[in-house]
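Trying the structure run again after the queue cleared.
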Amino acid sequence: MVYLLLGSNLGDSAALLEEAIEAIAKRIGTLSRRSAVYETQAWGKEDQPNFLNQAIAVETNLSPLEVLEQALWIEKELGRVRLERWGARLIDIDVILYGNEVVDIEDKLQVPHPQMQNRRFVLEPLAEIAGAALHPILNQTISEILLNLNDTLEVSKTKYNT
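Done. Tokens:
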């Protein structure tokens, strides 16, 4: 099982999340679960519109690197252009967890996502669909990590519950 976090804060964000999920189902694997859609304040670069974020669980036969490659292809297909770190974007697809695996491919992919335990906008939707999942490095569940989180950025469920 791979857990992905989708995010968008440009264009029709709710529609872009749905388009991304459809493309993921075609290119990466079978959608198993999805969280509600959350509206979140921007993290890292705060002078931009709020994001819509959603966590999904996907059953896949692809390797972690193949998942990343497909996610990047989907982002590009949906119009993502990388202009600045943590900048506004049409779509973002992050690999958060890949089963219990720890992956470190220099300059390409780190799983678990190296900042997930510090970000409410990742943990809130992920806990909704995988609260009992274990972080393979911290040896805590997603729900436990969320309980001890210091991030105070606002994260709230939206009307876009697909």
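The chain has a mean pLDDT of 91. Worth checking whether this holds up in the mutant runs.
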